[in-house]
Write a structure and sequence with these properties.
18 helices, Rossmann fold, five-stranded parallel beta sheet, about 475 residues, about 15% strand, about 40% helix, binds pyridoxal-5'-phosphate, alpha/beta, globular
Length: about 475
């Protein structure tokens, strides 16, 4: 399968090269040239497959020509063996025909493990075959860093450098990164804020001359196509468990960069009968403003109790725009050029297509806390703040009670003790067993000045892979 850029001016790449790159050279994001579509009979025949078996059916067409069937099966089996729950993505019922899809059973307790466990093992296989070593570089304000580190820690051909803002991530989140002591894992605490970290990563991708000649940077944020691909699987898994394709299913997704819900949209295009796809946002509501009032404008960042959704702009929305504009790369280039001014307006036809595909709803901190409290009182089930936002948005936008509503639980509540306490719990939620000693473990990280020369020479000098 070939992959093309949303801005229409970069060469098409095959799967291997798409995984090993970042943005397209024209500034766009890569998407598959065509999407595989499955018939209703074929989807029906998958009822009862294990998560791993289903993942193989769904991902095989995307990797054809680059990864053999046997290899893909092995990568999937390695990636999901680190999950605690046998079902990988179990469902829990919270009300009549309302379900929570627990996507936090992986090693770092957030849904990002689904994509990053897979990506780590995939990279390992590709690099071994190519006899190549790479440098993974990323910035994190929370969940991505630890999931990426867990995904890459056992990869012989990868050095991973994760930048976090010094003293500005929570203790749980920092320790999940800094207590991983493998030689190829490098945590940098930058004396700056998250934007400084991100700008440094962007600049480094733009000019990689600080690296030895035989190394290149690989992106592990959600612009990497393989992450989106791996996330399509759990929509099918939940759908099949609740009676699809014989009946439709709806999903509500706590949304930040639009990676997760974009995977849901792809699942629908590939044949899963999805009725509603709900975009749930916190006070950083650019997507809700865009859908409800055609206001896609940058607003100042707000720090909320659901920090993994604190974004000003959703980077993967460009992939959606590409489809809304009938895959016209010139149009997308124009829109993104306009957006440099801080705002863009969608055409009537693009906007009405978007409104047909998605519902949207915004939930602020106070309402979110009430939801955690209310659900706990009724069911003794403890939601994390991101999941609570998704559940509230589902309840407010739902059109039909007879269609199952699946709310994606993107993190375990133990990752966000502050919000949980504010919602009325008098103790911090317990960390799962494998992390119970997190606060006793040895930490290792390097505090570096907010200076690109310092960071780049640290990277070049400490390669271990
Ligand atoms: C990353 C993240 C999100 C947002 O997902 P996107 O794919 O960026 O929209 C939501 N909740 C949690 C807990 C996350 O870590």
């Amino acid at each position: 399968m070939k992959y093309i850029s949303t801005r229409g001016q970069a060469p098409a790449l095959d799967f291997e090269d798409v995984v090993l790159t970042g943005l397209a050279p024209d500034g766009g994001l890569y998407v598959p040239e065509t999407l595989p579509e499955f018939s209703q009979e074929e989807i029906a025949s998958w009822a009862g497959l294990s998560y791993e078996e289903l993942a193989f059916k769904i991902m095989a067409p995307f990797v054809s020509g680059a990864v053999s069937d046997a290899e893909l099966k092995q990568i999937i089996s390695e990636a999901y063996s680190s999950f605690r729950h046998d079902a990988i993505a179990p469902l829990v019922q919270t009300a009549h025909n309302e379900w929570i899809l627990e996507l936090f059973q992986g090693p770092t307790l957030a849904f990002k493990d689904f994509a990053l466990q897979f990506l780590g093992h995939l990279l390992d296989h590709l690099l071994k075959k190519r006899q190549q070593k790479v440098v993974v570089m990323g910035a994190t304000s929370g969940d991505t860093g630890s999931a990426a580190i867990e995904g890459c820690r056992r990869c012989d051909n990868i050095d991973i450098y994760i930048l976090h803002p010094y003293k500005r991530v929570s203790d749980v989140q920092r320790r999940q990164m800094t207590t991983v002591l493998e030689d190829n894992v490098h945590n940098i605490a930058l004396e700056g804020n998250f934007d400084d970290c991100q700008n440094m990563v962007k600049a480094s991708f733009g000019d990689q001359s600080f690296l030895p000649e035989d190394r290149q940077l690989v992106a592990v944020n959600s612009i990497n196509w393989a992450r989106i691909m791996a996330q399509i699987v759990y929509y099918f898994y939940a759908g099949l468990a609740l009676g699809a394709p014989a009946r439709p299913i709806s999903f509500s997704v706590p949304t930040g960069n639009f990676g997760d819900i974009f995977a849901g949209y792809l699942a629908k295009r590939m044949g899963l009968p999805i009725d509603q796809l709900v975009i749930a946002t916190n006070s950083n509501d650019i997507l809700h403003r865009c859908l409800s009032g055609n206001d896609h404008s940058k607003q100042p960042l707000q720090h909320t109790l659901s920090p993994s959704m604190d974004i000003m702009v959703s980077s993967n929305f460009e992939r959606m725009l590409f489809d809304l504009y009938d895959r016209d790369g010139d149009k997308i280039r124009g829109l993104m050029e306009d957006f440099k001014s801080g705002a863009m307006h969608l055409d009537e036809s693009a906007l009405s297509k978007a409104r047909e595909l998605f519902s949207s709803y915004k939930v602020d901190d106070d309402v979110m806390l009430e939801v955690i409290r209310d659900v706990f009182e009724r069911t003794e089930y403890l939601l994390d703040p991101h999941t609570a936002i998704g559940l509230k948005a589902a309840r407010e936008t739902r059109r039909r009670q007879d269609i199952p509503m699946v709310c994606l639980a993107t993190a375990h509540p133990a990752k966000f003790p502050e919000a949980v306490r504010k919602a009325g719990q008098d103790t911090d939620p317990a960390l799962p067993h494998h992390m119970a000693d997190l606060f006793q473990r040895e930490e290792r990280y390097e505090v570096l000045a907010n200076d690109i020369g310092t960071v780049q020479s640290y990277i070049a000098k400490n390669l271990k892979a």
